[in-house]
Design goal:
Layout (H helix, E strand, L loop, with lengths): L4 H10 L4 E7 L11 E7 L5 H10 L4 E4 L5 E3 L4 E7 L7 E4 L2 E5 L4 H10 L2 E2 L11 H6 L3 E2 L2 E2 L4 E7 L5 E5 L19 E8 L1 E2 L2 H18 L6 E4 L9 H7 L6 E2 L2 E3 L6 E4 L5 H19 L8 E3 L4
Parallel strand pairs: 2-5, 3-5, 4-19
Antiparallel strand pairs: 1-2, 6-7, 7-13, 8-14, 9-10, 11-12, 11-13, 15-18, 16-17, 17-18
């Protein structure tokens, strides 16, 4: 059921400092550049989130929380209710000694740049990950041997009960592409504290440049995608399994298994969410038949699929 005009106006009234729009194409907010319209799309400030969540809960309006949209496939039918984007209005980053306090909407690249500028080492791995800090916490993002769990001190969330709670990293059950936050239905990551260590500025810059060059060489960065499409199966590499199944360049509509890196599904320009989802399902089926290994999508499916 769609929201009433009165409910939409009430939500508009709650978002005074942030941004509010109706019928917003989600293709503008995902790195896949795919997705139908959000019924209501808001980018609130930190202070606006608790009353917004409270109102939606009271009126049974579904809320979908997103960050930079770098790990999402939004259905062609769009998203009903409110899409709450933790983004530019929640992107403050502060460095204090060897710690960085950052709001959840800050991009990982932004936080990594702040660390570099302060000659703090330990976050170089995250410089090229295209997500937000909040999303990186939720999925324990990682690359090139580093993970968020290696650098997090604590994470502050708005709980489903409407309370602001700070969890030490030990309580978050961080593992490969998983955190306890995933199971905390209705929780919203607001900020996080990271601890790094003093390093050599030239070495930090050199490491970040080296990792950026590796990404450029190995990943299909010239096409829209959501990064690695599948989680790494224990003892295997998803890209190698997909290649061995003869699926390099395999297409469904304008969605394609990248010819440059088989672990990536790309949008060649006109792919629909249905194209991508059908391709992902077919790739998983063929790898299961070929190697007996179950590929699990790392990409999160949200909204209505036609």
């Amino acid at each position: 059921m769609n929201m009433t005009s009165a409910q939409i106006e009430q939500i508009r009234a709650l978002i005074t400092a942030g941004s509010f729009v109706t019928k917003e194409p989600m293709a503008r907010h995902t790195t896949f550049r795919i997705g139908g319209d959000a019924e209501v799309f808001v980018e609130p400030t930190m202070e606006e989130i608790p009353p917004l969540i409270s109102y939606c809960k009271e009126h049974r309006i579904p809320v979908t929380v997103i960050g930079n949209g770098s790990n999402l496939l939004v259905g062609d039918g769009g998203i009903r209710g409110v899409v709450l984007c933790i983004g530019r209005n929640m992107s403050r980053v502060e460095v204090s000694g060897d710690c960085i306090d950052a709001q959840a909407g800050a991009l990982l690249a932004q936080v990594a740049s702040a660390a570099r500028d302060a000659a703090l080492s330990g976050m170089e791995f995250a410089a090229g990950i295209p997500g937000s800090l909040g999303g990186a916490v939720v999925m324990n993002a990682g690359a090139y041997g580093g993970e968020m769990k290696d650098i997090l001190v604590d994470v502050t969330c708005l709980s489903a009960a409407g309370e602001i709670v700070t969890y030490p990293v030990e309580d978050l059950e961080l593992s490969y592409r998983h955190s306890k936050v995933m199971e905390m239905e209705g929780a919203v990551v607001l900020s996080a504290r990271i601890r790094l260590h003093p390093g050599n500025l030239e070495e930090i810059v050199a490491t970040m440049r080296d990792l950026a060059a590796k990404r450029q060489e190995k990943q299909p960065l010239n096409f829209p995608s959501a990064g690695s499409t599948f989680k790494r199966p224990e003892g295997y590499f998803a890209g190698k399994l997909i290649e061995d199944a003869g699926l390099r360049g395999f297409q469904v509509g304008d969605a394609q298994v990248s010819e440059k890196h088989c672990g990536f599904v790309i949008n060649r320009g006109g792919a629909t969410a249905a194209d991508v989802r059908n391709l992902i399902e077919e790739v998983a089926r063929r790898v299961r038949e070929d190697a007996g290994v179950e590929l699990v999508p790392e990409v999160r499916f949200v909204g209505e699929f036609k």
